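Researcher: Structure prediction, please.
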Amino acid sequence: MFRSLAIAMTVVALGTGCAHKMIQGTQVPATDDNLAVMAVLVELQEAMRAKSTDRILSLVSTAYFEDNGTPDPRDDYGFEQLKTEILPKSLDVAEEIFVSFQVHDITVDDETAQADIRYNSRARLNLPTGTLWDTHREFNRVIFALEDGAWHIVSGL
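Model: Predicted structure follows.
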C-alpha cells in the first residue's frame, strides 16, 4: 500500500510544479497518459535499483519482444526468456545497481506509447574474474501497450 501511495505521490509531483503543465524536469506535456507512462518509468527505475525481478516483470507485457536492433534473429528474445534467463542472470551478477532516466519525449497513440529516454547506469558486477564497475549512458526508446487499463512495456528494456 505504501509503495502505491508513493508512486501516486510521485506522479502528482511530476505533473505539478510547472506553470506550463509539463512533467517536472522534462519538456513533456503533463497529460494523463504521459503521466501514466512516466509512472511506469519511475517504478521501473526503482525496481531496477532494488534488483527486484518480480517488480520489473510486473511492468512488462507478456507480449514483450526484443530484437536488440539487429537483423539477426539469434539475439531476439521474448517475455519467457526475459523472465527465466536474462533478468535473473543480470540481477544475480549485479551487486549494486544505480540507474536514472532522463525522459526526452513521450508519445501516446491510442493504445500504444513510446518514451525516448537517456539512461545512466552504473553497476558493480561480481564476475568470475573479480568485481568491477560497469557504466553506461545511452539513449533508448521504450515501447508500451495499454493492457487492461494499464501501460506495460513491450520492448526496450
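Model: Residues 1-9, 14-19 have pLDDT under 50 and may be disordered.
Researcher: Thanks, that helps.
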